[in-house]
Design brief:
This protein is of the alpha+beta class. The protein is built from 4 helices and 3 strands. A 3-stranded antiparallel beta sheet has the order 1-3-2, with helices on one face. A hairpin with a 2-residue loop joins strand 2 (78-86) and strand 3. InterPro entries: Acrflvin-R.
């Protein structure tokens, strides 16, 4: 038998204690490793909603949704966009790139909507 084997057999309690300590440190290390491997990511998506009381879906589309889409499409932060126009309301979902600061994106969207708002019908 080798030296290491004889030493391990003579000191079984010490080897068991070292093994338990190694497992405990491994569990603690794995817990903190998960947090570092999976950072929190903001969902790169924002929604712009506008209401136009009493308007038909076609009127909402042409008078509200299309002007808003035109203003939002011009922004460099916007990667993709989907919109839904229904009776009295318009909803535009804007997708942005991962890594963009969500506060900056929201401010840019608000500026774009503010610029187009004077051209929208009264009450929108």
């Amino acid at each position: 038998m080798s030296f290491l084997t004889r030493l391990s057999l003579k000191n079984r309690a010490l080897i068991a204690l070292i093994s338990v300590v190694a497992v405990i440190f491994g569990v603690i290390g794995a817990g903190s490793l998960k947090q570092e491997l999976f950072p929190s990511l903001d969902n790169p998506q924002a929604t712009v909603t506008a209401s136009y009381e009493g308007a038909t879906p076609e009127a909402v589309e042409s008078e509200v949704t299309e002007p808003l889409e035109g203003a939002l499409t011009a922004l460099p932060e916007v990667e993709d966009m989907t919109s839904t126009s229904s009776a009295g309301s318009s909803q535009i979902t804007v997708g942005t790139k991962y890594g963009d600061d969500s506060d900056d994106v929201v401010r840019a969207l608000q500026r774009a909507v503010s610029q187009v708002q004077p051209t929208l019908p009264d009450g929108v």
